[in-house]
């Protein structure tokens, strides 16, 4: 990432009380440097964090400032963690500095902060558009709309109902008032298998289900041919013509490799756990031979009394398909269901998949459908492998609507859609990461915190025939500062590797606190009280002395030798061309001292003429020369005059305070405006 210093920091006023210093007579307090009372006035440097960009985007003052027209662009700042041409730090940082999110928001008037931030320079507009885009997850009602039937539908797209057409149809239906330029990131399910509706036999002819589960007992060696009808992170429910049973695999189980609807042949020993029969995965053999649609039976609704009765059993039993309603209670990894009318029993959701977890709502009344498999904690917990969860939209429990009568193996995918003013269109130039992609990258969660570590390899795999200069937008879930948001990056292929188009630079701008509020201010005030051995003040005057030594030619036109060396004292820390002193940290314009240092440089000039010439040189040559050395990155700002103000001390036998002002006219170029000693500008 490139870094540019756009505006230098204001220099805070130094202490006001100075000790006496030999012949320079520093006994008095200096006008302009006095401090009355106790206040917290500081000059600090601060770099915005990822959390700060999010705070800037969510700040209510900024949201009102952005309005509807720039709302998406402001949202993008919180996602991308950099500013843009639409949302500039000059306009949107002050509200953040005024808020408690800024750690120094209590500083007093007169304080200044140099904010280092990131801003986009040449990034494509699409990146900010995606960062500000809304999201939409295709719902069960949407799938009904696509399939055109309240009963004969599946919660997925399929070959006869492709996502490419279905997503567009749904968005046109859901967002009739969309405006040109709107983007949505859409999440949906799709299947390569066509569902079969209305069949009394859920399996194809060539796959014959067994009819053995209902007669199994602990210790039996069984051969089962069935369909996977439910998943958890420890195994799956296998269903044949007679019943259902848990096939327990353990923590190594990969639910993504065993989609619902898979036709499976299993041979193994029947064991039991907490009065629930299961196939012992440690000794079984398994073969997935195909997949099919599966029709769920009607789920009998269990009351808390029914659950208490089921928990009171004393024999090992197979899984039972059922449904119950209660209040969800999540505590860490424990997911329980509480029944207001019976505190002695609770539902317990057994090792749910991420898809099931996403449907949980802590504290809400929800209806749970799935397979009752076991009883735990001496009959208290009714263990359920859930197939579906729905939130009940009322204060009293009620039966949830039935799930789709047919299911098919499906995968979750994402896409980007754009409204062109007439219709929504899928945007093929955006490649969205899907859950399977995160898993292939070895991610525990469906997001990336270090995208540039993974995405170049991902693009090499997904674009094996890419040509040099090809570009690709990648849309993914980005994790930072405790939250996950959609983000878009652009990558370019150089013929060998994919590399990120950063298009982002670091800049620094100054903000000052005035009237109780922070405001953008590129102007710089440099206070130079005559304090001996002050590191900053000494550095400034040493720069002045060095400039004279390096830039002033010997009189009479000779260029073979610099006369600056004659104006500079043998100690090398003050000069009498303009009188700047890094020893006393002042401007000494005493004519006698100037003649003493370099008589030939002054000739027959009078004391008044020498002092006038030293003033003229100081403000017209030496100060701007030192500023250019110390602030080479100072830049003009469109629409503003960037002014550098120097408050300094002059000694001509007595001390006095003066102010000189300079305007930044080009990078590192300072043009003299005026000085309180009324030296003429050159």
Strands, helices and their partners?
Blueprint: E1 2-3, E2 43-47, H1 50-58, H2 60-66, H3 71-80, H4 89-98, E3 112-120, H5 125-131, E4 134-137, H6 140-147, H7 163-174, E5 183-190, E6 221-232, E7 235-239, E8 244-248, E9 262-273, E10 276-280, E11 285-291, H8 304-311, E12 320-331, E13 334-339, E14 342-349, H9 354-357, E15 365-376, E16 381-391, E17 411-419, E18 424-426, E19 430-432, H10 435-440, H11 451-462, E20 471-480, E21 483-493, E22 498-500, E23 504-514, E24 517-520, E25 524-528, H12 535-551, H13 564-567, E26 580-581, E27 586-588, H14 591-597, H15 607-630, E28 643-651, E29 655-666, E30 669-675
Parallel strand pairs: 1-23, 2-3, 4-5, 8-10, 14-16, 19-20, 25-28, 27-28
Antiparallel strand pairs: 3-23, 5-17, 6-7, 6-9, 7-8, 9-10, 9-11, 12-13, 12-15, 13-14, 15-16, 17-18, 20-21, 21-22, 23-24, 26-27, 28-29, 29-30
Helix pairs in contact: 1-3, 3-5, 12-15
């Amino acid at each position: 990432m490139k870094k540019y210093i756009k505006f230098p920091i204001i220099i805070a006023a130094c202490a006001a009380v100075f000790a006496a210093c030999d012949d320079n007579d520093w006994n008095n307090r200096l006008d302009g440097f006095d401090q009355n009372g106790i206040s917290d006035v500081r000059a600090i440097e601060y770099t915005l964090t990822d959390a700060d960009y999010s705070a800037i985007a969510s700040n209510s003052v900024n949201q009102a400032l952005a309005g509807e027209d720039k709302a998406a662009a402001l949202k993008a700042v919180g996602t991308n963690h950099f500013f843009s041409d639409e949302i500039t730090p000059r306009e949107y940082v002050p509200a953040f500095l005024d808020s408690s999110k800024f750690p120094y928001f209590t500083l007093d008037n007169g304080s200044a902060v140099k904010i280092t931030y990131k801003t986009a320079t040449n990034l494509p507009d699409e990146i900010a558009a995606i960062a500000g885009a809304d999201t939409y997850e295709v719902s069960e009602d949407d799938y009904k709309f696509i399939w055109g039937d309240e009963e004969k539908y599946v919660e997925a797209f399929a070959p006869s109902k492709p996502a490419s057409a279905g997503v567009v149809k749904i968005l046109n239906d859901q967002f009739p008032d969309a405006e040109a330029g709107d983007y949505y990131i859409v999440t949906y399910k799709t299947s390569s298998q066509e569902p079969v509706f209305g069949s009394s036999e859920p399996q194809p002819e060539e796959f014959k289900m067994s009819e053995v589960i209902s007669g199994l007992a602990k210790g039996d060696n069984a051969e089962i041919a069935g369909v996977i009808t439910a998943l958890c992170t420890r195994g799956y429910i296998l269903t044949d013509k007679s019943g259902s049973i848990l096939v327990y695999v353990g923590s190594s189980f990969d639910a993504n490799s065993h989609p619902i609807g898979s036709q499976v042949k299993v041979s193994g020993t029947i064991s039991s756990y907490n009065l629930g029969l299961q196939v012992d995965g440690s000794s079984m053999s398994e073969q997935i031979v195909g997949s099919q649609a599966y029709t769920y039976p009607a789920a009998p609704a269990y009351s808390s009394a029914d659950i208490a009765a089921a928990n009171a059993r004393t024999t090992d039993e197979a899984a039972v398909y059922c449904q119950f309603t209660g209040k969800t209670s999540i505590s860490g990894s424990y997911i329980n269901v509480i029944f207001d009318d019976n505190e002695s029993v609770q539902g317990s959701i057994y090792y749910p998949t991420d898809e099931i977890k996403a449907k949980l709502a802590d504290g809400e009344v929800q209806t749970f459908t799935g397979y009752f498999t076991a009883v735990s904690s001496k009959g208290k917990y009714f263990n359920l492998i859930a197939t579906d969860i729905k939130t009940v939209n009322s204060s009293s429990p009620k039966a949830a609507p039935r799930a789709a009568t047919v299911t098919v193996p499906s995968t979750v995918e994402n896409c980007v859609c754009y409204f062109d003013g007439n219709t929504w269109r899928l945007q093929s130039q955006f490649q969205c990461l899907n859950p399977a992609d995160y898993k292939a990258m070895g991610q525990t969660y469906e997001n990336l915190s270090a995208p540039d570590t993974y995405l170049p390899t991902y693009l090499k795999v997904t674009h094996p025939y890419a040509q040099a200069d090809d570009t690709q937008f990648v849309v993914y879930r980005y994790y930072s500062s405790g939250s996950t948001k959609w983000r878009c990056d652009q990558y370019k292929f150089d013929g060998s590797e994919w590399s990120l188009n950063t298009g982002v630079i670091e800049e620094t701008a100054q903000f000052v606190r005035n009237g109780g509020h922070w405001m953008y201010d590129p102007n710089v005030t440099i206070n130079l009280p005559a304090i001996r051995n002050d590191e900053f003040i000494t550095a400034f005057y040493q720069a002045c002395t060095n400039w004279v030594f390096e830039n002033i030619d010997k009189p009479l036109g000779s260029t073979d030798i610099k006369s600056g060396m004659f104006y500079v004292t043998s100690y090398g820390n003050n000069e009498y061309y303009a009188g700047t002193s890094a020893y006393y940290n002042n401007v000494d314009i005493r004519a006698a001292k100037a003649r003493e240092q370099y008589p030939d440089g002054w000739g027959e000039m009078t004391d008044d003429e020498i002092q006038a010439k030293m003033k003229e040189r100081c403000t017209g040559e030496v100060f701007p020369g030192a500023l250019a050395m110390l602030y080479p990155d100072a830049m003009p700002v469109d629409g503003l005059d960037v002014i550098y103000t120097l408050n300094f001390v002059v000694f001509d036998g007595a001390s006095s305070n003066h102010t000189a002002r300079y305007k930044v006219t080009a990078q590192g170029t300072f043009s003299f405006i005026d000085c309180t000693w009324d030296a003429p500008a050159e």
